[in-house]
Amino acid sequence: MVSKKKASVVVDVVKKPPLKTKEYEKELRRLHVELVKLQQWVVSKGLKVCIVFEGRDGAGKGGTIKAITERVSPRVFRVVALPAPTDKEKTQLYFQRYVPHLPSAGEIVIFDRSWYNRAGVERVMGFCTPEQVEKFLDGAPVMEKSMVDAGIILLKYWLEVTPKEQERRLRDRINDGRKIWKLSPMDVKSFNLWDEYTVARDAMFAATDTAWAPWFVARSEDKKRVRLNIISHLLTQIPYKEIHVDPVELPKRKIGKVKPTNYPFRFVAEKF
């Protein structure tokens, strides 16, 4: 049953010291091993997993998804980040463009933003009407119930960041030439709409936080901690076992029967 209670996210907690890089990398390595085990289990059992990541600009969605996927197969862990809808897609049923990307057996699909664009950025930026938002909030639980009934394991994560930390990250994108591409004109327009996004978020939670597809909120003030927390949580939501794999041994290799070639290779300059 859909909960209609007023949604609220509390972020005022005791701030923990930053996680040390060595400690983070050690724990991430352990979790990566578990993700590989999960991957093998999903393929073996033909499971269908769909993971949705939502949150404000700068909340850390991209970094978290990268941490999840950097040591697993992209053929199993498939990331979907759809661009703005085309003119044709704008005339379709709203959920229609997302359905082809849902997981088949043996796949884990991660949506870097999803159909919840309508409840967030489209609503706040005026890209849709209030009536369209209302229809979406009424229809999303129904669609997600049909997904779950069809055997899809659906996980929805909201990354919660404070205004102060969000601003720090957005300014860091401006000042770091490696990150400037992350700052879109939409991010700049959204910067002064914090309260509007809060209203939209709470309405989304109230309408779509269901028994069959609940929202999980992760505090993302510390990027390293939120990545570890989400991966750890994710692993608890999909029961899995380690698949036995026979030990692999490389055969003896015979080298030296072919003489070195004198072809004039164009070697890359070794500047480092």
UniProtKB/TrEMBL annotation:
Group of enzyme by EC: transferase
Signal peptide: none
Domain of life: Bacteria
GO BP: any one term: phosphorus metabolic process
Alphabetized UniProt keyword annotations: Kinase, Transferase
Residue ranges annotated for the Polyphosphate kinase-2-related domain, each copy included: 20-243
GO MF, any single term: polyphosphate kinase activity
EC number(s) given by UniProt: 2.7.4.-
UniProt cross-references to InterPro entries, sorted A to Z: P-loop_NTPase (IPR027417), Polyphosphate_phosphotransfera (IPR016898), PPK2-related (IPR022488), PPK2_PA0141 (IPR022486)
Function according to Swiss-Prot or TrEMBL: Uses inorganic polyphosphate (polyP) as a donor to convert GDP to GTP or ADP to ATP.
Assembly notes: Homotetramer.
Similarity annotation: Belongs to the polyphosphate kinase 2 (PPK2) family. Class I subfamily.
This protein's name: ADP/GDP-polyphosphate phosphotransferase
Organism listed in the record: Yokenella regensburgei
